Amino acid sequence: MPLAPDLAGREFPPTPPFDVSRSQIAAFADAIGADDPLHRDPEAAKAAGHPDVIAPPTFPIVVAFQAMTAFMADRDVGIELRNVVHSDQRFEVDRPIRAGDVLTAVISVESVRQAAGTALVSTRSRIRTVDGEAVCTAYATLAHRAPEAAS
Amino acid sequence: MTALDPGATLGPSRYPVRRSDLVRYAGASGDFNPIHWSDRVARSVGLPGVIAHGMFTMALAARALDTWAGGPGRVRELGCKFTKPVVVPDDEDGVTVLVAGTVKDVTEDGVQVALEVTCGDDKVLGQPKAVLARG
What's this model's pTM, rounded to 2 decimal places? Predict the structure, then answer.
């Protein structure tokens, strides 16, 4: 199914509130082998000037990925995850994500380009606390190869 | 902590990547795309086999940055293209990703770092770069 022609410029509803826990930050840090105490020990984080443990730099992708997943599953979009390759990613960080944050992401489609059976969908996910504090903006380009074009 | 002066070379830091790391990362990140754990699905979409999440490789680059910066919390910008897949075999050893960096400049905006992220002979991330808050 070709992508909806009017996809570029669309903005999708905010993702449901996402509660960031200490254990989730520790699990993410474990998964990437980041052993710094600022990811696990609230006292160490406070001593370094943070209100609570902070997440590694790419943790915002967890929230952005939820926004991307909801966007791909939208019935007007209809992208299947296995046909998608992550083409590029960029983060602009306002501050580190920390335990106790309640976050939502608003994803919008900045552009759609077609190249050799692949659609390059550039997205921007603005991640904020539910109180409206900007935390991070995540830019991702997703390369979608339509199944009938797959070799 | 490494001195982050212009021209400073950082790393390389070496990180092993095994299938079990990908499974663990899938769980921690919520990205259960089967191309990162199923050879069958990976091959069905034209890949040579299971590949690492691009975001896992990027997370290793970020981990190196945090280490060089003397601890987490200083990354202000981080970006890359995912140019070559990191193919991870189903064995005990997996593959090794190397992350190296060069401080390009130190400006009002922060410490500008150009990265090189390789696996074997391949540069697996394209134009990886970061900005760190000044210390």
Answer: 0.94
